[in-house]
Amino acid sequence: MSRLDENISAKKTGMTGMRGFTVLWTGQLLSLLGTNMVGFALAIWIYGVSEESFRATAFSLVAFFNFAPLILVSPIAGAIVDRYDRRKVMMLADLAAGLPTIVVLLLYVTGNLQIWHLFVTGAVSSSFQAFHFPAYSAAVTMMVHKEHYGRASGMLATAQFASGIFAPIVSALVLTLAGLPAVLMIDIMTFVIAVSMLLFIHVPRPPATEHGRKGIGSIWKESFYGFRYIYERPSLLGLQLTFFCVNFIATFSNVLLNPMILTRVGDYETGQIILGSVLSAGGIGGVVGSVVMSAWGGPKRKVNGILCGMILLSLSGTLLMGLGRELIVWAIASFLGLFLLPILNGSSQAIWQAKVAPDVQGRVFATRLLIAQISVPMAMLLSGPIADRVFEPSMMSEGNLAPVLGWLVGTGPGAGMAVMFVITGILGVVVGLGAYAVRAVRDAEEILPDYDTKPLSKEGGQKQ
After folding, report:
1. pLDDT of residue 386
2. What does the H/E/C string look like for the chain?
3. How far is the C-alpha of 85 from the C-alpha of 177, rounded, in Å?
4. pLDDT digits (tens, 9 = 90+) for 310-323
């Protein structure tokens, strides 16, 4: 049977095009809802069991172990994604990434769960999640029309942020009524449903290209091909180095959002309600931004969506969050920041999907993730100790920074973390403005030619 016949036969066993993508998207929505519910519930649990002088560090260490393995495994994950059926890779990765939730559940119900257990389970889950991003991104490229890339990214962002609206509210309710085990059980059910829905879609195989043939070799050669591909294209490298810088800066504040709000509020029960409200406000902003991105597709010059998004997000999301001292300001900052995020990320995704050959997108997108996010684990490790040992003591009423910055963010518990938000917000603006001064980044869309895809089938997938 010819390759064409194989693909026609395969299409009869599953949906592709926008119908298939919608099924894939629905599964992701459910999975993200469960994941975010667990994230909120565990944040409350960590706050309750950790010592006050260690709280920021505890949050940053959990974040580190939930993220660093994803970055380290990405290159080899990308090579595997390009070698094998992307649908099956997503299924196996999702199943494996969900198993640590079962372990956490068993540890909790037996009374043995400790914070360090979340380091281990987070690292295992993160390692398998490294396969999901390149597999999902490359699958979308083959399932939908090129002109719909921005909208598809917007739909995924809608799923991410819609879960952010309901997850804190539902998680807090379930915690009150049934406790942490019930939240964990919901997460287990949602990832099983998400994996099951992958059985109903078909992801067309990408056509072989010259770029793909150049990268063929051992698993190690294919793993490093993504670095070579990006290095040979200064505009792609420049875009990712911009994300490298802004992600490093933003992580110092992002990791501290939960402990800052819980600490500034002080009261455990009230803090839980306010934190959930702030996160839900962010989820609403993200959904609104995602719907706008889905309908609009982003600005004509996607680079403007990236760099202007970075600047505005740093101002309205990060800096304003640090200046806030009450629910209304935090909620507005959360809404505005996450409203801009899908436009920023969707614009970036559209550029990469249009410029990179489909049969190497697994490797290239994995490397893209590594370059943009490799700075994040270091920031995660540093943010907690810096907050606990430097900024928090300095912003107590008798601290050395309190007379200088107390008028801006106040003093007392949580004020030091608020100062870190203000500083990172200002630095994020500097990065966005600086990137506009670099032609390789500013004119990336004109410098890089589009990948010339073959005609699309009636269903919207690539013809083979």
Report:
1. 95
2. CCHHHHHHHHHCCCECHHHHHHHHHHHHHHHHHHHHHHHHHHHHHHHHHCCHHHHHHHHHHHHHHCCHHHHHHHHHHHHHHHHCCHHHHHHHHHHHHHHHHHHHHHHHHCCCCCHHHHHHHHHHHHHHHCCHHHHHHHHHHHHCCHHHHHHHHHHHHHHHHHHHHHHHHHHHHHHHHHCHHHHHHHHHHHHHHHHHHHHHECCCCCCCCHHHHHCCCCHHHHHHHHHHHHHCCHHHHHHHHHHHHHHHHHHHHHCCHHHHHHHHHCCHHHHHHHHHHHHHHHHHHHHHHHHHHHHHCCCCCHHHHHHHHHHHHHHHHHHHHHHCCCHHHHHHHHHHHHHHHHHHHHHHHHHHHHHCCHHHHHHHHHHHHHHHHCHHHHHHHHHHHHHHHHHHHHCCCCCCCHHHHHHHHCCCCCHHHHHHHHHHHHHHHHHHHHHHCCHHHHCHHHHCCCCCCCCECCCCCECC
3. 42
4. 999 999 999 999 99
Cβ–Cβ under 8 Å, residues 78 and 226: yes
Closest CA to 251 of 122, 439, 66: 66
CATH class of residue range 7-204+220-447: mainly alpha
Residue 397: is it exposed, middle or buried by C-beta count within 10 angstroms (0-12/13-18/19+)? exposed
- Global pTM reads 0.74
Q: Which of 51, 52, 50, 56 is CA-nearest to residue 254?
A: 56
As a whole number of angstroms, the distance between CA 372 and CA 26 comes to 27
d(CA 27, CA 90): 11
Q: How far apart are CA 12 and CA 5, in angstroms?
A: 11
Distance CA 391, CA 252 (A): 12
Q: List pLDDT tens digits, range 268-299.
A: 778 888 998 998 899 899 889 888 887 888 89
